[in-house]
């Protein structure tokens, strides 16, 4: 067993924190504990992002500080309410601990569906989990924080849907944090076997307005042949929170994955999402909506890797910017040499509502096969003055006219959700930011 | 030192001067150099160049400082290709010439140099349609002349060595102001060892009716050419400048690292046309940028066909209200070539407009990369940018990349970027074959169609040759 | 009874203040009345409608627009609308992602006082009945405002909004343009149903055709930024018979 490294900056999460965390994890499988130790050492050995790192271009890396962070207190706190929509089952985590859940309906259990906390999965389905845990990672720059997630994660959901099982209602997961400088490390794993179909909606919220908090989340999403996976991640941390989220999406032959991420909270929130299209016919729909206000910085990095022929992907990231907010969208489509007949699209649209907001857009392509259709586009513009005049001419006040136009701008993305109840739940989640 | 004539092909060439046809430039004649700074780079080499040119002390200091900057800067491989690491700066010859004073008539040009330019058709071109010509052979201009009528309007068109010597007040005011020494490692290198290039000044209101042309020829092996061009268009004036370049193909690598600075004062218009057709052993690492003052317009028309690696991102700093900037570029990357090109549009005043149109063609294992920066900082109003990048991939193993970076602050701007990647349509090829064309002919037609709207922006002489070259490059790319 | 008064109004383009478009125009419309403004293209008819609604492209240099004696020129566009002015656009904007139902709801909500909530049941009841009246498919409520609508659908959607928002004054800018005869009839029927003592209508049109379906009480001829002739519906008929050149010659004579 290797030694545990001590990070240089001792002000934040320390080796002692890690030791305390490990002491509480003693009943978990050995492979897991080993993986955690290795991850902790990777975390310590990896420097914080540097200004000249291309993967962090335009990010305010100087502002990233882990000083003062602590593990979230483990005493149970009552969780914030989840938005309402019909759900197959739910898991509620508060400060990294399971705080509530609804049982998985028996017919689903009988079919072999698993929906449980990460901890329970480690104890009961260790081998299955090991097979999928971080088999792929986003690898878009936040490796240090992803390592920290593996080292310190306590919360997260494991959803496993066996071959051919289709579940119309969504699975709901909520992570809430309470307390200043509290740190959480959610890690959700979704595995859909051949021809399975399921939706998981995950909400990240701050339980109190306790100032700065820290979150480093990781998701592993797998869709096997012909599976249809819908993943929703909706985030509204406190306005002072530092957050990192790295999602890995793998779609096998003829699988379809739709991921929609909603970014509302945080002072500096970075989201990485990497889709790997592994089998012919695979499709990934990557969607994101962001409302950036005050001095918030939202930093989104994406990668669409086409590894097999006849794969397709479609990315649409829309940002609304107010005040002195800043957004960064950096996306790349990679078409590997054998991935002929790829059809890939990538689009970033920024709607500017302030003279001091800043939108950065880096839409990239790396194409190594010729028989492909790849396009990308980026636009940054204000509200169309004629549209605005039309709304005002109907007596709608400027603030609500803007709100209507923002929702109108977002609707193109929200409308891609088949599940209407979920669509409405997300709308009201967004409205909470305007309230 | 000089290589004996090696002539590989004798393809019929209508207009070799524009440097389109690679085979046309692939020859060398034996030339005797009077001045040679030797191999490798050092303070001594920099002093040697400065001494040959009998430069003022401030220039020598400028060069020495630049050398230190060059040495202190790393290669930009954190974003650029690692192929840069294959440049051996110690094996390059930084200065070769027969003297620093260009001749005003072709009769005076020494025979060994003159026959190169005659073969490239330069004197003939000059008679036909140019307002002035400068012909650079390795480090210095061998010939430089401007038509009398143009000179009478007060237009200055000399090489940079003469410009520095005879118009120091004008030269110094703008020299290194558009592109500072430390802009990048290669602009620093150029600042240390620059030689040749054009200095142009167009007085207020003067519109130069015909293009001024410079022709850059590399003759020697293991050589580095570092011309430095500065064009100043005074208020309301207009000029079109064209440059062509060729070099013979050597087995060792050749370096071409120019710095080009343009200044368009209020209401002035500069059009800068480049056709780069270096041999496939040339590293072509060029920094080009212009400053456009109020209501001025700078347009870069850039065609990159040859070289092993080209890194070139012509830029415009839109410094005055309503200034306009435009980059139009065509790149063709064949086997073993990497065309890493693009554009930079730095908006620095209200209501400034910029346009970028880039088309690239990757053939065989060629790689075409577009890199762009569009920057609209805070407190500006009403700026616009429109960028379009289209890439055409010919073979299954061809490669293209697109890396734009767009920053917009504020809610009064309109910025749009679009890029697409496609291949030649099979139906289109089939259609043309059904009409009796060979697959190769059909492919050439298709590719020409792809760049047609851009090719039309080149002067007639260039666009005809461009089409011909595409045909040449496309030969053997199918099947 | 309410009144909309336009007094010696002069208007220039905001971006080109040297260009005057409305050159001293006066007109008074009372609720219960239907006025038609006719005139050749480019005489400032559409500008007049937009200026009353407060379009930023135009600047009033002198004169006034008053509702019940109170100037509305200092008001923002939305305030003017809530004071009772409705503009039926010649070219209605497409607003992607905003459904007609949500849009009209927001417009009605804006007319309620602080803390008041719109009664959703009553709202939908009213919306559906007005849609039936205008022969608009109920499915349209979930479609984005004007997005992908045909010319006729856009104009019917304008009349639907007019019916829902119940303004005191409707400014109808070339409502007949781009309509075939069936669509024109539906739109006219809609307007006629809404006609009554509580609504004043100012119809702007190039063609007399519309006036066969919506019979005006007053007809005004606008030329070069001014009203040059006023009369009853017979003026429209005369105009149709003689053409606009007749107005020009008349003017030249005087």
Describe the structure.
The complex is a heterotrimer of chains A (435), B (479) and C (254). Chain A has helices at residues 15-24, 30-45, 106-110, 118-124, 126-132, 143-152, 385-392, 398-414, 420-434; strands at residues 70-71, 87-94, 97-101, 114-117, 157-161, 166-177, 182-184, 187-192, 197-206, 214-223, 228-236, 242-251, 256-263, 268-277, 283-292, 297-306, 312-321, 326-335, 343-352, 358-367, 373-382. Chain A is α/β, with parallel strands linked by helices. In chain A, strand 2 and strand 3 form a beta hairpin. Chain A is globular, with a radius of gyration of 21 Å. In chain A, 55% of the residues are buried. The longest helix of chain B is centred in the last third of the chain and has 17 residues, at 439-455. Chain B has 479 residues and is α/β, with parallel strands linked by helices. In chain B, a hairpin with a 2-residue loop joins strand 3 and strand 4 (140-146). Chain B has helices at 22-25, 43-52, 57-72, 111-120, 122-129, 148-152, 160-166, 168-174, 185-193, 426-434, 439-455, 460-474, and strands at residues 35-36, 96-97, 132-137, 140-146, 156-159, 198-202, 212-217, 224-225, 228-233, 238-246, 254-256, 259-264, 269-276, 282-292, 297-304, 309-312, 315-318, 324-333, 338-347, 353-362, 367-376, 384-393, 399-409, 414-423. In chain B, helix 3 packs antiparallel against helix 9. In chain B, the strands form 3 sheets. In chain B, strands 5, 6, 8, 9, 11, 12, 14, 16, 17, 19, 21 and 23 form a 12-stranded mixed β-sheet that branches. A 10-stranded mixed β-sheet of chain B has the order 4-3-7-10-13-15-18-20-22-24. Chain B has a two-stranded antiparallel ribbon with strand order 1-2. Chain B starts with 21 loop residues before the first helix and ends in a 5-residue tail after the last helix. Chain C is 37% helix and 29% strand. Chain C has 9 helices and 12 strands. Chain C has helices spanning 45-53, 77-82, 100-110, 120-133, 151-165, 181-194, 209-213, 233-242, 244-253; strands at 3-13, 20-30, 34-38, 58-67, 70-71, 85-88, 95-99, 144-145, 169-173, 200-205, 218-223, 226-231. In chain C, the strands form 3 sheets. Chain C has a 6-stranded mixed β-sheet with strand order 6-9-10-3-11-12, with helices on both faces. Chain C is globular and about 60 Å long. The model of chain C has no long low-confidence stretch (mean pLDDT 91). Chains in contact: A-B, A-C. The A-B interface holds A 52-54, 57-58, 337, 340, 350, 352-383 and B 78-79, 378-379, 391, 393-423. Strand 20 (358-367) of chain A pairs antiparallel with strand 23 (399-409) of chain B, so a sheet runs across the interface.
């Amino acid at each position: 067993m290797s030694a545990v490294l001590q990070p240089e900056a001792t002000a934040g999460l320390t080796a002692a924190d890690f030791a305390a965390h490990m002491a509480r994890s003693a009943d978990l499988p050995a492979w897991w504990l080993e993986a955690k130790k290795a991850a902790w050492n990777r975390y310590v050995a990896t420097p914080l992002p540097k200004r000249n790192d291309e993967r962090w271009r335009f990010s305010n890396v100087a502002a990233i500080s882990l000083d003062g962070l602590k593990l979230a207190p483990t005493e149970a706190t009552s969780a914030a309410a989840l938005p309402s929509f019909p759900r197959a089952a739910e898991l509620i985590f508060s400060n990294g601990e399971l705080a509530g859940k609804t049982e998985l309906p028996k017919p689903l259990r009988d079919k072999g569906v698993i929906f449980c906390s990460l901890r329970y999965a480690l104890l009961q389905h260790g081998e299955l989990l090991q097979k999928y845990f971080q088999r792929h990672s986003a690898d878009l720059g936040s490796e240090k924080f992803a390592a920290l997630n593996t080292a310190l994660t306590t919360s997260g959901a494991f959803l496993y849907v066996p071959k051919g099982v289709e579940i119309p209602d969504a699975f709901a997961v909520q992570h809430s944090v309470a307390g200043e400088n509290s740190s959480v490390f959610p890690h959700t794993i979704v595995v859909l076997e051949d021809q399975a179909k399921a939706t998981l909606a995950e909400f990240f919220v701050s339980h109190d307005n306790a100032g700065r908090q820290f979150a480093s989340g990781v998701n592993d999403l797998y869709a096997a042949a012909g599976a249809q996976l819908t993943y929703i991640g909706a985030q509204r941390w406190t306005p002072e929170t530092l957050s990192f989220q790295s999602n890995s999406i793998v779609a096998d032959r003829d699988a379809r994955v739709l991921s929609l991420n909603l970014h509302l909270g945080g002072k500096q929130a970075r989201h990485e999402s990497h889709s790997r299209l592994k089998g012919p016919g695979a499709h990934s729909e990557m969607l994101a909506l962001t409302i950036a206000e005050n001095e918030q910085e939202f930093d989104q990095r994406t990668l669409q890797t086409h590894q097999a022929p006849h794969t397709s992907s479609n990315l649409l990231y829309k940002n609304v910017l107010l005040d002195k907010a800043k957004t960064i969208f950096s996306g790349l489509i990679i078409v590997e040499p054998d991935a002929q007949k790829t059809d890939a699209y990538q689009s970033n649209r920024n709607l500017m509502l302030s003279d001091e907001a800043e939108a950065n857009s880096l839409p990239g392509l790396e194409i190594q096969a010729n028989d492909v259709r790849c396009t990308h586009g980026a636009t940054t513009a204000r509200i169309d003055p004629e549209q605005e005049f039309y709304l005002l001419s109907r007596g709608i006040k400027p603030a609500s006219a803007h709100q209507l136009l923002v929702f109108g701008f977002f609707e193109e993305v929200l409308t891609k959700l088949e599940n209407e109840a979920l669509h409405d739940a997300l709308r009201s989640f967004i409205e909470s930011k305007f309230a | 030192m000089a290589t004996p004539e090696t002539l590989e092909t004798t393809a019929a060439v209508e207009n070799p001067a524009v440097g389109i046809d690679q085979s046309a430039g692939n020859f060398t004649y034996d030339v005797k150099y009077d001045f040679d700074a030797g191999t490798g780079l050092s303070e001594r080499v920099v002093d040697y160049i400065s001494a040959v040119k009998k430069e003022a002390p401030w220039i020598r200091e400028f060069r020495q400082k630049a050398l230190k900057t060059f040495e202190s800067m790393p290669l930009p491989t954190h974003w650029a290709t690692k192929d840069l690491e294959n440049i051996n700066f110690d094996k390059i010859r930084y200065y070769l010439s027969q003297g620093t004073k260009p001749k005003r008539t072709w009769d005076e040009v020494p025979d060994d140099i003159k026959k190169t330019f005659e073969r490239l058709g330069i004197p003939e071109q000059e008679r036909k349609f140019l307002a002035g010509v400068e012909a650079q052979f390795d480090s210095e201009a061998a010939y430089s002349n401007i038509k009398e009528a143009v000179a009478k309007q007060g237009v200055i068109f000399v090489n940079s060595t003469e410009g520095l010597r005879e118009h120091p007040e004008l030269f110094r005011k703008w020299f290194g102001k558009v592109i500072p020494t430390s802009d990048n490692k290669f602009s620093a290198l150029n600042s240390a060892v620059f030689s040749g290039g054009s200095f142009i000044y167009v007085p207020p209101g003067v519109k130069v009716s015909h293009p001024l042309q410079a022709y850059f020829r590399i003759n020697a092996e293991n050589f580095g050419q570092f011309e430095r061009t500065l064009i100043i268009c005074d208020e309301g004036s207009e000029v079109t400048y064209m440059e062509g370049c060729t070099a013979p193909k050597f087995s060792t690598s050749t370096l071409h690292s120019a710095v080009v600075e343009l200044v368009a004062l209020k209401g002035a218009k500069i059009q800068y046309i480049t056709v780069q057709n270096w041999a496939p052993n040339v590293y072509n690492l060029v920094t080009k940028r212009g400053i456009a003052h109020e209501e001025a317009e700078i347009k870069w028309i850039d065609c990159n066909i040859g070289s092993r690696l080209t890194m070139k991102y012509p830029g415009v700093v839109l410094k005055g209200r309503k200034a306009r900037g435009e980059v139009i570029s065509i790149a063709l990357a064949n086997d073993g070539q990497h065309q890493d090109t693009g554009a930079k549009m730095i908006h620095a005043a209200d209501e400034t407009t910029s346009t970028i149109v880039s088309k690239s063609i990757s053939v065989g294992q060629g790689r075409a990369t577009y890199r762009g920066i569009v920057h609209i900082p805070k407190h500006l109003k009403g700026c616009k940018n429109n960028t379009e990048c289209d890439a055409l991939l010919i073979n299954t193993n061809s490669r293209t990349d697109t890396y734009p970076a767009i920053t917009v602050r504020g809610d009064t701007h309109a910025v749009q970027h679009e890029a697409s990647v496609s291949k030649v349509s099979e139906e289109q090829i089939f259609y043309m074959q059904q009409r009796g064309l060979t697959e190769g002919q059909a492919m050439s037609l298709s590719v020409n169609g792809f760049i047609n709207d851009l090719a039309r922006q080149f002067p007639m002489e260039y666009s005809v040759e461009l089409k011909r070259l595409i045909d040449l490059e496309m030969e053997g790319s199918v099947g | 009874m309410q009144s909309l008064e336009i007094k010696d109004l002069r208007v220039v383009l905001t971006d080109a203040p040297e260009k005057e478009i409305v050159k001293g125009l006066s007109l008074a419309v009372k609720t219960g009345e239907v006025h038609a403004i006719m005139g050749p293209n480019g005489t400032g008819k559409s500008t007049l409608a937009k200026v009353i609604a407060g379009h930023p492209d135009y600047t009033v240099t002198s004169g006034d627009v008053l509702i019940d004696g109170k100037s509305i020129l200092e008001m923002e566009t939305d305030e003017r609308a809530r004071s009772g002015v409705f503009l039926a656009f010649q070219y209605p904007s497409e607003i992607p992602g905003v459904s007609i139902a949500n849009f009209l709801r927001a417009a009605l909500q804006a007319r309620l006082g602080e803390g008041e909530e719109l009664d959703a049941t009553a709202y939908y009841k009213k919306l559906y009945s007005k849609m039936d009246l205008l022969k608009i498919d109920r499915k349209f409520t979930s479609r984005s405002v004007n997005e992908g609508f045909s010319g006729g659908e856009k104009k019917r959607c304008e009349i639907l909004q007019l019916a829902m928002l119940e303004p005191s004054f409707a400014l109808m800018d070339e409502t007949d343009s781009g309509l075939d005869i069936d669509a024109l009839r539906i739109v006219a029927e809609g307007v006629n149903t809404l006609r009554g003592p509580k609504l004043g209508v100012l119809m702007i049109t190039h063609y007399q055709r519309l006036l066969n379906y919506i019979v005006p009480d007053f007809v005004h001829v606008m030329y070069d930024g001014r009203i040059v002739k006023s009369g009853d519906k017979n003026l429209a008929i005369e105009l149709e018979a003689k053409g606009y050149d007749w107005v020009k010659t008349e003017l030249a004579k005087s």
